[in-house]
Amino acid sequence: MENWIVILLYGLAGTILGGFLFVVPSIHFLNFSGVVIALWGHHQGLFPVAQPLTLFAFFMGMVVSFGIMNTIPSMFLGAPDESAVFVVLPGAKYMLQGKGYEGAMLTGLGGMLGIFFLAIFTPFLFFGLPKLHVILGPHMHWILGLIIVYMLMSEWPKGTGKGDTWWQKFKGAWANLFAGIVTFVLSAFMGFLIFNRTMVPVQMGFQGLLPVFVGLFAVSSLISAILSKQKIPPQHVSNSIDLDYKTMWKGWMPGCIGGTLAAYLPGVTGGIGGLIAGHACAQRDDRIFVMSQGVSKVVYYTGQFLLYFIPGYFFIGGGGLTRGGMAINLSPFYKPQLLQEYFFIFGIVVIAASISFFLLSFNSKWIIKLIAKVPYQNLSYASLAIVVVMVFFMPAMIEGGISAATLLSGLQVIGVMCVSTCLGLIPIFYHCRRSNCMAVIIVPICISMSGYGPSLAALLGLA
Amino acid sequence: MKGLTHFMSGAAIASFFLPAVTMAGAERIGGANSFILVLGGLFGIMPDTMDFKMGQFFTKAEHEIDPDPMDPDPQMMAEGLGKALDECYETGKMVKAQMYPMRMGADLWRQYVVQFDGETNEVMIVINEVVTTSQVPVLGSEPPPNKRIGRYKIKGEFNITHSRPSVVDIMSGPMYGFVKNKEGKMEIEFLPWHRTWSHSYVLGAMLSVPIWLIASLAAGWHIGWLYGLIAFLGFSIHLTEDLTGHMGGSLWWPIVKPRCNGLNLFKASNPHANFSIDYTAVVLILFNLNRYAPSPAFTLSTFQYFLYGLILPLGVYFSIVKIFGEKTKKKKEGVISMEKALAREEMEYAAEEAMGGEM
Q: What's the CA gap between B42 and A303, in Å, rounded?
């Protein structure tokens, strides 16, 4: 029993640390986990080796708190990660109406409902998922292909259609579509380059995508916020949320479907999953959308890591399922074997979600006070500075010290971030979908799974 | 139906072919895996893609109503639209009118509502508030009451009693096609360029021919036909699904050109219809992938599979919708704003009448 208490304490530590850490723009749990694992290499006493579940409990707490807390940098500071990018626009709308706190709490409530979904879905997961994986496993490449084609085909012209000739009308309306296709192709190319010939130091391993995502989503949003010079009206901290049970259900359903899709399908993030599920349920309401994105990202992050805890014996031939960066990062250390471990970890998920929800309220309130005191442009500049410093020093943090090599690596990483920032700015300036940037990960994975990866790499001279 | 529904249906129909599923599966020995099943989805969404991304820009409207965003004149707009109706009434030919949105800035648009009133045979334009691109109204930005409503009484009669109001705000405006029917009444076609030539089985067959040829040259004549067939079926399922709605399509264009009406079972945007078809498509895909797999993961009978996998879940879903769903249709904010403006106009009129009576 004592062991469980130690594990629980690690879970709580991860939750509370994450609850404050992930308020800072650009800090992603995947990158932080890289730093913690590197630190663990230098300080062996950080996690008891005899109890590997402490490591998992710590990171599960962190994952849950990230899923709920990443609303704050996305909504209040305009610096989203790859899953919260769809919250930026409706979040900005809430902010302009002085209802930023309500918007943030809507996503938080969505997150709680996501955890509730995982609780009731769990029994089906044990028996259904292994069978589903046997069926879908060999077909993953074309399922990702379907998502890619849909992402491209479902973007519609946004021009006003004015013009004297059909060509003028066509050109005006296609400006955003063309920009979307360009963003998609360039992002896919960049992703393929990074996957096949890494442009960041090899020591960064899985963290290699950090500068890419930060550039595509966070830095580009911050530059846009700085350029737009938008003034944020005073924010009202309400005691209640404008939400009824029907709206809740309407947001919950697409969020659960989207999060589950994203948790299972490699390369699909919670944002994309939520977007597709939103189309499937054909709902139009900002509250529904914001809440469904809250559900989706929590189901995605938490569900993905939770899949690792399904005991391997449920799967035909054993082995289990490794989905997402966190499971990949931790898989060398331990593979949970018992059903008991699954339920214990799920207990930590519930506790972490409850704490994170209250921390979301707490953090939102002081961020709102900060926004009221400090001009929003200055906050954006400060966020940008934090992001650049974080990215620059990431190699040093992973190495556990500053050296000439880590500083040089930092410059390389900043270079990659600058390129991806330019890509991330295309959708902002040309009003096309920002999800096109996700081609950076989904296309290389799809190509690789289809078996065309080596021949394409050879064609591009990357082999 | 929504784009995703057509897309999913196209992929589902492709999964019925054993050679296609075998080619797509990673168990296939030798070579990379095929994306043939994606072709079904791609052609499933193709008819709407051709309309919304191409067709609409090639359709010329005889009348264009492009109001001044800074000083919109609702009366002039109503007259512009009304004159298009009069022209159709007088000539008996189809006349098209294009309404444009009023862009006021990078993120601001002036919203207005168009309504055709069959009881008074009037075209009505109501100017609403300025809205952001997210369609959030800027409070207090509506024009003064005397510059808010425009009406025009047409020469003929509408074939409708009360049309659904069209809210025009961001990005693009609707095109109307006016037709005089055999009884001499005016009919309104919403988006006359939509679901015409692009929604034809004949065009679907024509488009699948190049797919068949290209695939045959690339993969061999023995299998190329399957690519063409999947493309055609994906395209066709879209047209067939669209028949459940109101608008229908020009199914045999260019042989028979007029657009036939749909079965009017539900609106294309109906969330429950869309969701249940999407879900059915997923269930069908799983069923086909399992039965064509070298070693199927589940061995339920077809009846059991569809009972547990499709009928019961959809039954639960529709029960929830029935018990907790919306009992009344929710109106768009723009329509509510229009109704308030009209109610205010009516009250002012009634007040004037009453005062006149006292005098």
A: 30
